[in-house]
Write a structure and sequence with these properties.
The protein has 379 residues and is of the alpha/beta class. Helix content is 54%, strand content 15%. Among the domains are: 92 residues, no CATH class; 138 residues, Rossmann fold, CATH 3.40.50. The longest helix is centred in the middle third of the chain and has 40 residues.
């Protein structure tokens, strides 16, 4: 029985090495992320360290025995006795030394006993990890042991063989589940790096439980398709053909409020809607000129409002229009004075739709912070 540590770049590479070196009888005991190279841990490459347990090496041909130090340092391979010695508490070692001085004749007996005891503990751990209680009924297991104690008959032998076959199938299933868990963990880490929410990630991973780790070359396209579908389902798409009355556009500076308003106006115009445009973005002359150009091309009326009273008058004059699109100046979510001015205009409009625009390349944390600051406007 051997334990070996593999250092790989991806989980797929680890599974390929495990199957090549150990076959189907290897078990993954532990995985962890490490870094190699760099300067004091900075700039190093990311690797995955996989600890593997094997009852028998697949390529177990005779090889000249290396020194203990060289073997462990070069192959990262440890026998059970090595692990036992490395994990023996210091207090136990001191006690063993005292017993060596007082009772030298009993040294070998006690050492063999401690090694046997630790080996039994590790063997028991491996045996426990193989069991899947939800797959094998306890009564069937008791039935198996009960009939093993009696003289084997033809029916008992058949039952035993069937149960052994079932247990082997469960063990293989357990291995595949462990491999899939590592594969899904890799996907989960990548989504976290891209700032997707925990709720979205967990919901998406639940849709990947049927993927097989052996079919990585197929999985990439499947994952991409399912991710696009999940992302689309998570977005609430507003049908602008159904909107009416007053629609107000708010958001930070430079996110494209004016351009978006013009695109929606063009779509509504194609639907033969009677529309008008109001702008209160009088801080930038270019913004007003831009809207004038859009309004002339679309053949719709444009109203420029400098004060809340101007805005109120314009709204009263446009009561017979189907849709009124209201453009606002970009506001910094960190400037309380600007946000207060925007709140005054919003109260005058009392919009039926209050749409907040944010750039799609904004990271998740900044997007949440922006929304929190605009939230009192109830977008």
């Amino acid at each position: 029985m051997q334990i070996k540590k593999l250092t790989v770049k991806t989980i797929s590479e680890a599974m390929e090495k495990i199957r090549r070196e150990f076959g189907e009888d290897a078990y993954i005991l532990d995985t962890k992320k490490i870094k190699k190279g760099g300067f004091f841990g900075i700039g190093g490459e990311k690797y995955i360290e996989v600890t593997v347990l094997s009852e028998e090496n697949k390529n177990s041909e005779y090889k000249p025995q290396k020194s203990k130090k060289h073997s462990q340092e070069s192959d990262n391979t440890y026998t059970l006795n090595d692990l036992i010695k490395r994990n023996t508490p210091e207090l136990y070692r001191n006690k063993e030394k005292e017993q060596k001085i007082s009772k030298p004749s009993n040294l070998n007996i006690e050492k063999e006993s401690s090694v046997k005891h630790s080996k039994d503990d590790l063997t028991e751990f491996v045996k426990t990890s193989r069991e899947i209680s939800s797959k094998i009924d306890k009564s069937a297991e008791a039935f198996y042991h009960q009939h093993n104690e009696k003289e084997p008959s033809e029916s008992n032998i058949k039952d035993s063989l069937k149960l052994e076959e079932l247990m082997k199938m469960v063990e293989k299933l357990n291995k595949k589940m462990e491999a899939n868990n590592l594969y899904l963990q890799d996907i989960k880490d990548k989504l976290y790096e891209k700032s997707y929410s925990r709720t979205f990630i967990e919901s998406f991973l639940n849709q990947l439980n049927d993927l097989k780790v052996e079919e990585n070359w197929k999985n990439q396209e499947i994952i991409r398709t399912r991710f696009e579908k999940k992302l689309y389902q998570s977005l609430e798409i507003l049908n602008f053909g159904d909107i009416k009355n007053k629609v107000m556009f708010i958001g930070p500076t430079g996110v494209g409020k004016t351009t978006t308003l013009a695109k929606i106006a063009a779509s509504l115009k194609k639907m033969n809607k009677k529309i008008a445009i109001i702008t209160i973005d009088t801080y930038r002359i270019a913004a007003t000129d831009q809207l004038k150009t859009y309004a002339d091309i679309l053949g719709v009326s444009l109203h420029i409002c400098y004060t809340p009273s101007d805005l109120k008058s314009a709204l009263e004059s446009l009561l017979n229009f189907d849709v009124i699109l209201i453009d606002t100046a970009g506001r910094s979510h960190k400037n309380n004075l600007q946000m207060g001015e925007l709140k005054v205009f919003k109260d005058v409009v009392d919009p039926d739709y209050n749409i907040m625009l944010v750039s799609s390349n904004t990271n998740c944390e900044d997007m949440i912070h922006i929304y929190d600051n605009f939230s009192y406007l109830k977008p």
